[in-house]
User: What shape does this take?
Amino acid sequence: MSAPETEYAFDKDLTVRLRELTRPAPTGLAKWRPSQLLGLAAIATIIGWLLVHTVNRFVDPALMRVTVTLGALGFWRFGWWFTHAVRAEHFARAIWPQKRAAASALWARGWRPRRLHIQMTTYFEEPAITKRVIGSILSQIRRERIPTTLYIGTGSAYDELIIRQFVETYAQDIPDDLAELVFIRQNQPGKRMAIGLILRAINRASVHPDDLVIFMDGDALYGGDVLEKTLSMFGADPELQALTTNEEVICYGPKWIANWLDMRFAQRRLAMQSHAVAGRVLTLTGRMSVFRAKHMTSERFIRTIEADHLDHWLWGRFRFLSGDDKSTWYHLLSRGAKMTYVPDATVYTIEVIKENGLERMIQNFRRWSGNMLRNGSRAIALGPRAMPFFIWWCLVDQRIAMWTMLVSPVMAVLAAFTTPEYLWSCLIWVIASRVLLCLFLYRYSRKVDLSWPFILYLNQVINASVKVYMIFHLSKQKWSNRGNQSAGGGAGLVARIQNATAKAQLYTAVAGFVLALATYAGIVQLPSL
Assistant: This one.
């Protein structure tokens, strides 16, 4: 569904969607409609029929090496997936209830942070979204009575006027000593600079080290009791330095993109709960994360956000455009800071997709993958002693998985040159395995969507392909949200040489990858020396 054209229609539609999303999520079989159960039964029947009526080429002696490789990789990857699933379940059942009980009891006894600082950046956002976001913040400040300063980083008077008019109309009952609104007009382009200016303003306000600071985006809408559920965690755990929250998505765009985003957020919930068992997470999501204010007083922390960069042998020194959440995460990770995930505090992300859906998907992958690769390499370099081993290995696995994910489709295509029917066996395996994985993912979603098994495989292959491309083009960045910023696209002689070198590396690596698989499978015979 595309975004409504008028502000009134947009706001009305948001009301309907939020009413649905804020209802208690169904569990177990209650998620399944009769038509979906019939659809799952039909898929299982088709898979069973194919298994019975097609020749099993996996046991073909000529392709046994291919089968053994695919089987070993499948056992490893699915074993890793189920490890996350078990850890996530352990977190949900054994760890989180105790943490929530302790935090809620402390809040009920009257504990509150001395002061809350909220830093939010917005850039030509839809007025209906901006008003909803500001309204959700003010309503919780009004209810919880926490002294709060709301710092809003803007790029023009457009967003400031919308916010000011809304606050003057709907926040007259909030005393000035309870809530203060501060606009920070950035004088340099980019979200990172906007955040840096806000953090410097927070420091000028004589922030206390134990104050709390929320980092959030201008399209992140608070769900019920977000402040209570997040801030109380810091009172209950003095060692906790940062946390991030659960997210739901409200998507205005192609239906399949909405389904894909729903699936991505379900994957995120499973992974975040697994990581949180170790007292760390793999990102402090920019949509909504909370920090102890003592980190905001560090000039190094602020400069990491403003001017984070990488020194690369080919691309030289280049600054990061997006990924401020990865920069803050790396800063805390490198200092051994404890982090966690709060599954029952929900922030609603509002995505408005006006361009081509597939183009937006690939652009997001390039941004996410680039941020992950740029920060992952230096996080791995910290070593397993700087963090729990499981978290360190998750970072290593991200680097390995982008190649192993491509092994199965490449080997299946190579094997098809000698035995075309082998593709059928691989197709059956892909469908059956993704259906099984999605049965686990449905536990972390509000609804069942039978398109997920197919979207999941497409997601994995495209994501892995984009990561392989990005590993050789780390300086190339594009971010349409903040003035359509881009980097790494120079046209001079040096830039042309750099791009040609990166392309040569990419083609050589991919060709070597395919040749190695073909040789191992016995499909290509290398000449003997």
Summary: Residues 39-84+398-521 form one domain.
